[in-house]
Each structure stands twice: as C-alpha cells, then as structure tokens.
Amino acid sequence: MMEKYNKSDLLWLLVPTAGLIVMGLLAVYSATNGSTESVSLFYKQLSWAVTGAVAASIIYFMDYRLIKDNAYIMYAAGIILLIAVLVFGKKVAGATSWVRFGMFSFQPSELTKMFTIIAMARFLSDDQTDIGNMMDLGKALALALVPAGLIMLQPDMGTTLTCLSFIVPMIVLAGFDLYYIMLAVVPVALMLSGFFNFTILAIIAVVSLVMFVLLRKKFYFHQLLVTGAGFLSGLLTWKFTASILKPHQIKRIQIFLDPTSDPQGAGYNALQARIAIASGGIFGKGFLQGTQTQLRYIPAQWTDFIFCVVAEELGFWGSTLLLLLFLALVLRLIWMVGAIKNRFVELLLAGYVSLLLTHVVINIGMTIGVMPVIGVPLPFISYGGSSLVANMMMVGLAMNFSKNRRHIGY
C-alpha cells in the first residue's frame, strides 16, 4: 500500500513535467516552422529533452545523500564554469553567456543556479550554521552573490535577477526573521516602482520603528546592518538610477511604461507579443496556423517570447492548460516542502520553487506587458538545452526525494 501511494506521489511530479516538455517541443517546432533552421532547432531541443530525461533518471536512482555530500563540489564546478565562460565564452545577443561544444552551445549559468541552491541548502541545514549569526548570514548571502556577480559581468541582467530570487525564501525558511528582510527590501521595491522620495523614506522609518516596538523585536547587530543596507540601497539607487542603469536598460523601462513610444524599434517585440496573444482568442488559430508566429513578426519567438506561440495557436484554453501544468508542479513541490522533515531537502526544494516561479512570472509577465523585457526563458518551454536539462535534473531530484520519503522523513 505504501509503495502504491509512493508511485502516485511520483506521478504528481512526472505528469505536469512531461506535459510541459511536450508543449514546449510543439511550441518550438511551430515557432521555427518554415525557417531554414527549423529542423535543426527542433531536433536539438528534442535531443536535449532526451539528455535531460537520462540525467533525471540517473539522479532519480542515485543515493540522495550523495547530493548533499557533494554540494560544495558542484558549486565550485559551477563557479569555475562561470569564470571560464567569461574567458572563452561566445557572445549571443550582447552577453557572453555561452560556451560551444561541437554543434551544441551550453549556458553554464543555468546549471550553476541549481548548484547554488543545493550548496545554500547544504550550508543552511548544517547543525553548525546559525542564520542569526552575522558571519553565517554573510556566508549564506555570499554563496548566492558570487555566481550572481559573475553572471552580471557577462552581462546578463535577467539571469542575475533569477539567481537572486531564492535567497530570501531560503534564509527565511532557515530561521531568519522576515521582518528585517522586509525593512531591507521595501525601500528598494518602492524605488523601482518610481514612488521613492525622502518623504516616503521618513514614513517607512517611522512605521518601522512603531512596528519594532509593537512586535517587541530583539534587535541584533547583523539585523541592523541588513535594515540599514536596504534603506541605503534604496536611497542610493533612487539618487543615481540614471548612472547605474545602462542606456538599453533605461530604454526597456521606458518601453515597458509606453511601448507605443517606439513601435518600430525597442517597443516592437512587446507590441507584437500583445497582438499575437490577443488574436488567439478562446480556442486559438490552430497548430501551425498562427499569423504572427508563422510570419515571424515576433523576434526570439522560440525563446523569450514563446508564450505568444502557445497563446496565439492554442488560445485561452491552451494557455490555461500551460499555466495549470506549472501550477500543478509548483503546488506539488510546495507540498513536499511542508511535508518533508529533512532540513536539507526542504530548503533545496524551497529554493527551486522560488527560482521556477520567478522564471514563470517574469517571462509571462513581460510577454503580456506587465513587466519589462529582460530576457528570461520560460522553463521547459523555451528553446534552450541548458535550461531544459537543468530543470529536468531538479525535478528528477525531487522525484528521488519522493521515492526515498521513508528514509528522508515525511
């Protein structure tokens, strides 16, 4: 009876993942249909899917303890790869993010993000680690900030942001007080929204002090530093935004606010994406029948804007199916985080869920026009072997944990 239930657990991970991969392959085929590179790109993606399935299968049958034991080795390998790509990498779309192996290109940052999550989970789950200690907090942050810094040098802002997405959930789950993180994050968030000024800063300071007294918080030195860093970063970024952001990044923000300001230039992608999504209607135009897709009105429609292909050709119901598959996978992983009593496993899964959600929200958000275009792929769907294999490996790892539930502790 236990074994039967265990197989059912695995299906909750396997079915949505397989569904997403199939939809991704169909979308890549349609997005590249009729082009000179269509067959090449589709079969490359198919070969990466097979490679990912093999890698996930190996991880599934592996002793789960090997993952934790070799966490720092994998992390070190990821850092070496990021350094290597800065020296020997291939520049694509203005970023040196790729290395070439024969006919295949590989993006080390995708694997390194996964290795960073595993290393952070290992560190935060160690009995000797006290996240309330300033030194340990600094080490935990450094584990994520080092690869993020190397990725920023490529430069790849989208991947850098996703590499930072799992920091807060993991350290909060490890025991760090969310109250102090909010104090650090809110000023920056307000600055990004355009509502940051000295009056707002003063209001936040007063409200924070009142909450501090009402909640009877114990104030530690490292928490003071975190809070101060948040206010300082918000103030400095607000003051020097124009000098910090590059011209093309400022342009992306301007286009996000008003795509029609440059409809034939920087705003072209965003406008064509909205047209494609809206034209899909309820049931879509049919597979390989999308006008925007087949006539190539949307650049990079098999990578960053692949959601347009699904929305135009499969319509509202196809888009809903895609989102439901993501929701099923995310909810299952969240359920595992709450059910598993193993500290390392729950931290690792929490980090991956945060990364997965960040990718989905940013990608679809920029496609439908509620977020700036920053070049983040849609997991399992966008063309790109590095992202596909890395995500399949993490699902394989989650399946391994589910299989070994009695040893890990549910």
Polypeptide structure, described:
Keywords: Cell membrane, Cell shape, Cell wall biogenesis/degradation, Glycosyltransferase, Membrane, Peptidoglycan synthesis, Transferase, Transmembrane, Transmembrane helix. It is found in: Cell membrane; Membrane. The chain crosses the membrane at residues 46-64, 71-89, 160-182, 188-212, 219-238, 314-335, 347-374, 380-401. Pathway: Cell wall biogenesis; peptidoglycan biosynthesis. Its main location: membrane. The chain has helices spanning 2-32, 38-61, 64-69, 71-88, 108-125, 134-152, 157-164, 167-173, 178-193, 198-215, 221-244, 247-257, 268-279, 291-294, 306-339, 343-368, 385-403, 405-408; strands at residues 90-92, 95-101, 104-106. It is mostly helical and 410 residues long. A three-stranded antiparallel β-sheet has the order 1-2-3, with helices on one face. α5 packs antiparallel against α6 (134-152), α9 runs parallel beside α11 (221-244) and α16 (343-368) packs antiparallel against α17. The chain is globular. The longest helix is centred in the last third of the chain and has 34 residues, at 306-339. The chain has a domain at 177-244. The chain has 18 helices and three strands. Mean pLDDT is 79; it is low at 1-5 and 238-242.
